[in-house]
Amino acid sequence: MSAAGALPGGPAGGELRRWQRFTPLERVARTGFYLFALLAVLWALRTIEIIPEFLYDAPHQTVDLFARMWPIDWSWYPKVVHAALMETLHIATLGTILAVALAAPVALLVATNITHSVILNTFGKFILVATRSVHSIMWALFFVAVFGPGALAGMLAIAVHSIGFTGKFLSEAIEEARPGPIEALKAVGAPPLAILIKGYWPQVKPAFLALAIFRWDINIRESAVLGLVGGGGLGMALDTALSNLYWDQAGLVLFVIFVVVIATEIVTTTIRSRIL
């Protein structure tokens, strides 16, 4: 704030003060941030080398692409797409179950109210960061190279990538557990396993189930495209149609993916609302 003049009708020597929303230092910092953001955008636009001719032609190419996909070849669904859809659901489901099973002990290592060793906490955090920092497509490429193309590589990619996400939020839910029941169990001499089952689990259970269902929803979306790199499922059917330029079949796969994503969103939202 700064003085703006004498305060009329006030005490002698009183001054009228003008309140400002930001201090001079805050205004300089905000201006510097805006300039930095503007320079970053300009640098990015210059780096990616946008070709104006392609932008002008993009609407026409989009309309032409969708015109090639119509009418959709529905006869291809029972031949190929249905089996690929079932495989995608199996990949997402088994990958989620495996991820939850592997993330639970890691979450116990990371939760500071259970594991008091700094070394074990750091090791658990390293596992969470390492698994979620690598995209599921990169994990799929790795497992395809190890096990060959197919559903196994896609399932392992989904599972390993989901460990970081699931373990992080599960450890936070454990750390937010109320200490009262745990202290009562310790006071009566309950063993550590009983403390986990009777003290922590009832408090963590709603968040755990909601997290598992939410992760399953995400994994269905991701497993639908892992087939593009050999991970099985709908992605492989889509890759086959695109490679052969069968646009009507590609349109069918895209339509099925859209319907499955919408359906799983409705199902998971309904289940999570009842759990929470």
What this model shows, in words?
This protein is mainly α and 276 residues long. The chain folds into two domains: 2-50; 73-275, MetI-like (MetI-like fold, Orthogonal Bundle). The chain is 78% helix and 3% strand. The protein has ten helices and two strands, in the order E-E-H-H-H-H-H-H-H-H-H-H. The chain has helices at 24-48, 52-69, 76-110, 118-133, 136-147, 151-175, 179-187, 192-226, 234-243, 247-275, and strands at 2-6, 15-18. It has a two-stranded antiparallel sheet. Strand 1 and strand 2 form a beta hairpin. Helix 3 (76-110) packs across helix 9 (234-243) and helix 5 packs across helix 6 (151-175). It is extended and about 70 Å long. The two termini are 47 Å apart. Residues 1-7 have low confidence and may be disordered.
